[in-house]
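Standup notes, protein team

Yesterday: finished cleaning the Paractinoplanes ferrugineus set.
Today: DUF350 domain-containing protein structure.
Blockers: none.

Input for DUF350 domain-containing protein:
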Amino acid sequence: MLQDLLEGAGRSIVYGLVGIGLMAVGYILIDLLTPGKLRDLIWAERNQNAALLLASNQLGIALIVFTAIFTSYDSFGRGLASTVIFGLVGIAIMGLSFLVLDWMTPGKLGEVICTPERHGGALVSSATHFGAALIICACIS
């Protein structure tokens, strides 16, 4: 019984590290898609548009990781691999959704996200990111 508990705790740590790593990749993606540095935009300039987009991206990735773990294979290795693969696919799809939305709307979406005033485009972009994550979650389950 103790061995099962320790094994489960070890797996939780590994899955947690993978989830944090995937969220870090998601952060980098948003940083690349928007002008300027996210850390400056969000923490120094308190830009709510950038914060909303990053928050939806991070929640979307966390939801993908959760779904991948929840529906995971019995084999730890296969479950871990599927979590990484679906996480990376989700991040790529979220990035693609940003580019498609940018193509469909006037101006540059990255610049809209970086404006200091609240902008409806940030809300739409945020919903698009989260919607893309939900699509990946449905594919996993």
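Follow-up from PR in the comments: Residues 69 and 83 are 6 Å apart (CA to CA).
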